[in-house]
Here is the input.
Amino acid sequence: MKPKLIIGIVAIVGFTSLLMYNFGESISTYTTFEGAGERSTAHIPGTWDDEKEAEFSLETKRFTFYMKDEDGVSKKVVYSKPKPNNFEQADQLVVIGEMRGDTFYANEMLMKCPSKYNDTDPGQFTEAVEG
Amino acid sequence: MLGILGKLLISASFVTSIGAMVFYYISANKDEDRTLKLGNWLFTAKTTFLVIASGILIYLIFQHQFQYYYVFNYTSLDLTPRYLFSAFYGGQEGSFMLWILFSALFGFGLMKWTRAPYKAPVLFFLTLTQVFLLSMLLGWDIFGLKLGASPFRTIAEEMPNAPFLQANPDFVPSDGSGLNDLLKSPWMMIHPPVLFIGFAMMTIPYCFAMAALWKQQYHKWIGPALPWTLSANVALLTAIFLGGYWAYVTLSFGGYWAWDPVENASLVPWLIGTAGIHTMIIQRKSAIAQKSSILFAILAYVAVVYETFLTRSGILGSSSVHSFVDLGLYNQLLAFMLVVTLVGLGLFFWRYKELPSPEKESSILSREFMTVTGAMMLLILGLVIILGTSSPILGRLFVENPTPPEISFYNTWSMPIAMIMALLTVIGQYLFWNKHDAESLASALINPLLVTSAVTILSVIFGDVRDLYYMVYLFCGFFAIVGNAWIMIKLAMKNPKVIGGSLTHVGFGLLLVGILASSAYNEPLVDQKTANYNAAVERGEVTDEQGFKVTQKEEMLLLNLNEPIMIDNRYMVTYEGYELDNSVRRGQQTYKILFEPIDGGKPFYMNPEVYPMLTSSTQENIQWSVDPDVRTGLMSDIYMYVGGSSYVEQQNEWVKKNAEMMQNVASQDTAGIQKDSVNVQSFNMNPGQSIDVGNYTIRFVNYVQTDSTELPPNTTIGVRAEIELIHPASNRVITLDPLFAVYSENGQSYIFSPPAFASDFDLEFQFTEINPQENSIELTVTGLEEEYEPEWVLVVADEKPFISVVWTGTFILMIGFSISIFRHWGREKEKNSD
Here is the structure.
C-alpha cells in the first residue's frame, strides 16, 4: 500500500474514533432522581406534582416546584430562571441539572406540551358540543 | 364535496406523476424526443392538479370549513387573512404541498433551460422525488395499509371513535383550534416558503449528478448545475437567517441558534451544498474533482431527505422543541430516504471505476488541493452535525434512551473545523488567482498577516479576551476577513464580476468573529448587588441553607415601578409601567423600561411584551407568552424579555380566585371572606415619587425647610416632607408636612416624628426615617384599608456584543453567492443561445 493511503486511513480512523468517543461522552440517558447520582447534567423526565406548592420567589429569584419522576418519586426542583410560560400545560417535563441532597437544581428545563402545533385534545370537541 | 375533489386531485396528481416518470425514463434510455414531450405533458397536468388542490385547501381555510381536520387544527375564525394563508403551510401536510409546488415550478425551469443529454434523466429524477412527496398526501387505505395523510381528511375520518361523532356524525365544530400564537408572526409568512424553495432547489444538483452518472457524461453537467446549486444555497442561507432572526426576536431562549434538530436540518444541506459548489468550481477550471462534485451533489439532497425523515417521522420525539407531529408516515419517509440514498450512492459506486481521475496528484500548494480540502472540511462539519442530530438513533450505541448531545459537543467540533476553513479560504483564494510556490505565497501573505495580527491584538486588548483558544480563533476569523478582502480589492480593480468567491469568504470570516463575540461574551445585565453575588458564586463562595455550593447565577432584574436601578455601572434603568393594548393581541401588555446611559448618551426605552396565549388558555389558567424586545446596535444588542410582573400575578390570582368561587358556589359554600385591615404601613419614597394605595395616591413632593421654633432643643437634624394625599374619587388634594427631627438629650439621640393628620379620611402620616444615601424617606401611614402592592416587573436582559456582525457576515455571504450566480448563469445563458 502507498504510504499516503495508510496515513489517510489512520487519520480517518483516528478522527472517527475521537468523534464517536466525544459523542458518547456528551450524550447521557434519561434517568430518575435516584439514578441522577453525581452527574452534573442529569436529564430527568417527569411530571409536575401539582399537589405541592410551586412558586417563583422574588427574593431568591428562583422558581421552586415539585416534580414526580418516572418512578413516582416526588422531589423539590429549583430552577434558576423565571417560571416558564407553558409550565402548567406541560404534560411532561425534562429537568436538566444536578441532584444535591434532596433537592434537584435544574439549569435547564424542557416542556413537552400538548400544543396546537402538535395535536389536538379531543376533549375540546365535547366542550364544543355542550356549549 | 370539495374535500373529495381535493383528494381526487391529489390522487390524479400522484398517478400522472408516475406516468411522467415512466415517460421520462423511456426518453432518457432511448434518447427519444416524443416520449420526453409526453412526459412534459403529464408533468404539466400533474402540476395543474396540484395547484387546483392547493387552491381548494386555501379556499376551505378561508371559508372556515372546520369539518376538515386540517382547517380545524390550524386555523380559527379570528385569524387575519395573512395568517389564514400561512396556515396553508402551517401543518405538515400543507408544507409537503408547498414543497412539491416549488419543486414543480423549478421543473418547468429545467424543461426550458436544460439541454440533452441531461434533460430527460434530470426530469426523471425530479419527478421521482415528487412522486414520493405526493405519496405523503394521498390518504389511501389499501387493505389496511395506509398511504399518506390527506390534508382533506375530515374530523370524522381523523377520529372515527370519538364519542361525540358517534352521537352526531354530522357534527361540525363552531370554531377551529387556531394557529399557535408563536407562529402568528410576519416571519411565518416568509420563512417556510423560502425554506421549501431551498429544499426544492437542492433536488436539482442531485438530479444533474444522477443524470451525469446515467448518461456517463461526467463533465458538462456542472455548467447548468452550478447556478442551480448556488441558488439553492442562497435560498437555504436566507431561510436559515430568517429562522435564526425569528427565533432571536420572538422567542425567549435568548439567541439566534440553538443547534436544534430542525435548525440543523437546513444547515447540513447548506454545508454539503457549499462543499459541492467548491468542487464544481474547481472541476470547471481544471477538470478534476469529478467524483467529489457528484458525491457532494448526491449527499446534499440525501441530507435534505434524511433531516426531513428525522424531523417528520416522530423519531426525535422530545429532543426537539419544534419537530412535527407524527402522522404515521414513518415507513413512507424511510422508503423515500432509502431510495434516494441507495439509488444515488448505488449508481455512484456502480460507475465509480469509470469516473475520471486526475492524471497526476495536485501539489499541496495548489488551488485544487486547497479547495478540495476546504470542501472536505465542510462535509466533515456537516457529518458531525448529522451525528449530533441523530442522537436518538445513534446514541443507542452507547446508552439506552439517549438524550441529545450537550451543546458543547457541537461547539467543540465546529470551532476547530471552522478555524481550519478560515485559514484555507485565504490560502485557497491566493492560489486560485495566481500560481505560487511556498516562498512567493509567504511574501504575498506578509501584509495581510501583519494587518490580521494588529487587528487581533487590538480586539484582544479592547475586548478583554483572556482565553488563548479564543485568541487563536479570532486570529483565524480576522485572517479570513483581511486576506480575502485584500484579494477582493485587487480583483475588483480588474474585473468586479469575479469577486463573488472572495466576498463570500469575507462574509464567512465576519460570521466567525460575530458568532464568538455574541455567544461567548454575552453578558446578563444585572445590578451591582447581583453582579457581586454572581462573582461570589463563580469563586465558589456561596453556599445554600443545606451547605451545598451554589452554582446557579442570578441573571434577572427586579424593577419596581419608578425606582431607578443602576445596571452594570452604565445605565439607570427605570420601570415606568405598562400599557394594555388589545389591538394586536387581546390582553397584551407592553412594558416601558427606560434606559438612561450615565455617560450622558441618549436615553431609550425597551418595550418587551407579554400576552395571554388565547388558543391554550382556559378559564382556570391563563397561559402567558412573551415577546422579547431587542435593541439593535452597531456594537451590541440589548435583548430583554419579561419573566413576570405584578400585573401577571394579579391576573393569575384573579383567575384562580374566580375558579375557586365557582367551586364555592357549586358546593353552596357561601362563607364570607374576612378581609384583613392593614392598619400601619411603611413606604420608602424618593422625592417626586408617588404610589397608589387603594383609593388614594400618596406623593412625596420634596423636602421642606422647617421653622426652628417648632423643633425640640438640641436638634441636630430637622426637616419636613411635603406630602400630597390625593383622593381622585372626590377630586381632593390634601397637603401635609410631617416633621422628622433628631435631637439629643443627656448625651443620647432621639427621633421626633409627630404624626400629621388627614382628618377628612381618618389617616395619619409619620415621617419615620431618612436615608441620605438613597435620597429616600420612610413614611408610615396609619388607617389605610388596602394593602399597598408595589408594581414590579421581572426582566431578563442580556447584552450581546456584535450580533450586527453576524448579520452582516450572513448578508455578505448572500451577496457573494448571488454575484457568483449571475456570473455562472450568464455563461450558461450564452451556451443556451448558441
Notes: The longest helix of chain A spans residues 3-26.
